[in-house]
Amino acid sequence: MRKIIIGVMGPGTGASETDWENAYTIGTLIAQEGWVLLTGGRNVGVMDAANRGAKSANGLTVGILPDAGDSGVSDAVHIAIFTDMGSARNNINVLSSDGVIACGMGAGTASEVALALKANKPIVLLTQDRESQRFFQHLSHHHIWIATSPKDAIAFLKQALTRRGKTP
Amino acid sequence: MRKIIIGVMGPGTGASETDWENAYTIGTLIAQEGWVLLTGGRNVGVMDAANRGAKSANGLTVGILPDAGDSGVSDAVHIAIFTDMGSARNNINVLSSDGVIACGMGAGTASEVALALKANKPIVLLTQDRESQRFFQHLSHHHIWIATSPKDAIAFLKQALTRRGKTP
Amino acid sequence: MRKIIIGVMGPGTGASETDWENAYTIGTLIAQEGWVLLTGGRNVGVMDAANRGAKSANGLTVGILPDAGDSGVSDAVHIAIFTDMGSARNNINVLSSDGVIACGMGAGTASEVALALKANKPIVLLTQDRESQRFFQHLSHHHIWIATSPKDAIAFLKQALTRRGKTP
Amino acid sequence: MRKIIIGVMGPGTGASETDWENAYTIGTLIAQEGWVLLTGGRNVGVMDAANRGAKSANGLTVGILPDAGDSGVSDAVHIAIFTDMGSARNNINVLSSDGVIACGMGAGTASEVALALKANKPIVLLTQDRESQRFFQHLSHHHIWIATSPKDAIAFLKQALTRRGKTP
């Protein structure tokens, strides 16, 4: 009955065009799997792109907002959870996700990947950035997967969910 | 596109039989309106009853859990948000709801009604408890409605949402 | 080695003159006991008055702020803890206090008294408001004390701390 | 009147002997500057060592605990703030610190350094770990300083505080 939730994290205003396109495609693929998409919910960057992708494929989207109120929410979020907790909500993003995909990198995204490691979640990095890949693999070899494409990211998560007994 | 979310708050293990039945009916009615049900997500008392009611009417249910992990979640929750924040998550329950129904009363529920007042949300009290009615009406006449039945509670919220420009 | 911490809660801008005077006196008395004063830290109402009282008696003061940044902090706060969590920080106020005094009443204060009940903390209400007295005593007879003066409030807390094995 | 607060972050059970010794020395130096030490407050690793160091030099120590209750707190913490928020409290650690020293590295520490970058705080890394140094300098050149010793870390923070108009 409980739905599988996949968290997609990544830069807001600092997202590159590649990050944006990858996030859109990942949103689409998550919806096609029948999974729920979870993001930070704002109307910028990777969050917005992933929500738009999921919406285009008739997926269900949850946004965990840093603010208390209605402004700045992605139009493609169905269920908006307002935390009024700023970056402390990053831990909720991670704990509520059965798996996490980091699409691009930035300070906020780095905190989410680190918290996901601490929470023992399956994590996929979809970034060409070598320092990020090295750093997080160095922190933990077990739960990090370096993906080369959105499809690759989804395939890894499917395996990880199966290993953990969650029928994807 | 964003869905209307109604929060149903109330005692867990301390819920009376009347609280349980009211919560179940309220969950059903919320689902029939096409609204999303939001609760504290645990598998006891008012939270569990409201989720079961909404599920029986094919509604969508969101649970905002106080814990980090999978145990203790109502079977009738579709989307589980894990906060690991204990009672501090009560503020998230309230901020994320377009309207709040308190079904019964207890210390946790009282904190949620008080936080909902502070957040300027439409609130319905569905309880026969006179001290609760007097205290919260005394705190604020504007946003509190004393309901005599689940139907009455839903009717009030419909009006309140309309007044705020949210087409219910 | 750990210091005894007493939380003083009450209205901000809505505080009455009596609330302000009571809070100032309570701050003074807490400092004279060698306890640390904890408040919501803002530069208004009961929070500000209690901090000024404690400072006047050379006490140590901790403010748990709802915001992320430096503005709006009481000048009489020594240690400012910035939560950026809005009203969710009310639960931290309560959990970090060995005992809680509510000086006056409002929506935020009501949430703190309710959360203190849930956390099983000794609580003193210093308010003439009958609805508040009745409601919270109705919620729990065990942990609530209705005080008639700041001295009375401190005397009750001393007894409660002793009963719990915390040498005040 | 407000005290300068320096946060010292680092591994708990995973701390190396060098991390422990560095943290103890840093705690001592912070106390000697008249600054308040802030840590995650637990009785293990870098948190415990820094608190013991500060205590040995008659400093004042604040612990921001992840739990709700009394167990697991470092004996050398004067003021214990109980958040019951798990790793979400990492953001409070960072926001409440005028400067942050990371002593060693781990998933929790990485999240704190990333959140400190996002909050625009002066940060010192005291670790020999090259991947950490490269990754965080890559994320932001502006606010990160790589220290080679506890004394070096304190000297950098003094300059950073002065630049920001906080008389250290």
From TrEMBL, chains A, B, C, D:
Any one Gene Ontology cellular component term annotated for this protein: cytosol
Among InterPro entries, the record links this protein to: LDcluster4 (IPR041164), LOG_family_nucleotidases (IPR052341)
Gene3D superfamilies listed in its UniProt record: 3.40.50.450
Superkingdom of the organism of origin: Bacteria
Entries under Pfam families matching the protein:
LDcluster4
Q: Record's SUPFAM superfamilies?
A: MCP/YpsA-like
Q: Which PANTHER family match?
A: CYTOKININ RIBOSIDE 5'-MONOPHOSPHATE PHOSPHORIBOHYDROLASE, LYSINE DECARBOXYLASE-LIKE PROTEIN
Q: What is the official name of this protein in its record?
A: Putative Rossmann fold nucleotide-binding protein
Q: Which organism is it from?
A: Allocoleopsis franciscana PCC 7113
